[in-house]
Structures are given as structure tokens and as C-alpha cells.
Design goal:
Strand content of chain B: over 45%
Distance between the termini of chain A: 36 Å
Distance between the termini of chain B: 39 Å
Largest interface: A-B, 30 and 28 residues
Shape of chain A: globular
Order of helices and strands of chain A: EEEEEEEEEEE
Number of strands of chain B: 11
Shape of chain B: globular
Oligomer: heterodimer
Largest sheet of chain B: 6 strands, mixed
Helix content of chain A: under 10%
Helix content of chain B: under 10%
Strand content of chain A: over 45%
Amino acid sequence: NAGVMQNPRHLVRRRGQEARLRCSPMKGHSHVYWYRQLPEEGLKFMVYLQKENIIDESGMPKERFSAEFPKEGPSILRIQQVVRGDSAAYFCASSRMELAKAGTEAFFGQGTRLTVV
Amino acid sequence: SQQGEEDPQALSIQEGENATMNCSYKTSINNLQWYRQNSGRGLVHLILIRSNEREKHSGRLRVTLDTSKKSSSLLITASRAADTASYFCATDARDDKIIFGKGTRLHILP
């Protein structure tokens, strides 16, 4: 069972371009979480999705950022018109059930490191 | 796979008391982090402690790390109703994988 797969591992974009980050959850997992990590900081929650639904997007900037988790295919985090401050590592995690329920673990992908030049 | 294991699985205490949760892990780490999650919400990062640190404070939170025992503890002092949530530790090994444990479900009684 492959782990959570994120691609690309590294992404370089010029200011003003769009960045698309993909996350394929573990098999059987229908809950996906996206996090952003700035250098020397912990992961900061961005958005929580179940298949086709956004459950909690309280950590996501209101502008330029969007996320989806379609019925088929990976979850996508999309950043439009990137700026230098968007440079960070973006991690997604998946779980079989909601994490707050008993016996559920979340597994992270290895992240996408976005560099905006 | 490496995993943080929280202990206890569930904890109920009276408001105002201190809550202590423990986490054990298996392999060498770079950092250990504690997160909180309210039901239906995303994970909120609480505190990060590096492998060369032994203790860290943030407000009412105190985290300790014992790398020789591969364990960490999270202490919440003067608990409040709003502290009711699940708490997870997460460890990142040197291969950059980060895995959460199953969490401790904390319930603060009025």
C-alpha cells in the first residue's frame, strides 16, 4: 500500500504564475488535509476535504488559494498568481475517517516544496 | 512505520485541573509536534520541540521531550472547557515522513 503521494516534490514558479499541487491519498482514505510549513515552523492547517466536499477551509487564504478533492483523482491545491511569500512546503495528509474519531491515524505525504522566484 | 502513540486514549478531568498526555515513538526524530483537533475541524498546531530541546512552554502548554526514552509529554494547566478536543503528537523522522498517532481525546467537565 503506497503512502500518501504528493507531486511534484519540488516546484519552481515565477511570480504571477499558477501552482498546482497534487495529493493522492492512501488507498481507502477519503479524508484529506492540506498544510503549509514555512521554514523552521510547524505545519499550519489550511483545508480539510472529504470526497467532493470542503469540510473546513478556515486556514486557507481567501484569495488566490483553492482546493478540491474530486470523486475521481487526486486532491488539488491551486495557488493562482503566486507571490514570493507563497514559497513554502505544502503537505497533505490523509485518513480513513475523521481524525478526532477513535482509532484513526493520519499519514502525511512528503510534501511539495514550492519556490517562487 | 514510525508512529507516535499517545497515552491515555481518553481523559476526562474537571475544569481547572491540569491534563497530562504522553506520546511515545519508535525511531530517531528531528522534531516532535503536538496538534489539537476539534471534531469536524482541521488540525491546529500547538507546539514544536526539536530533538535537542528538553522542555518548551507556550501559554498554558508545557511540552517535554526525552529522546533517551523516545517519549514526550504535553501538560495543559488550568484546563478550560474549550480545551475539549483530541490531541495528537506527530514525529518527523529523518526521511521526512510525518505520522500522527491515534490521539488522546480530552474531555473537560464543567
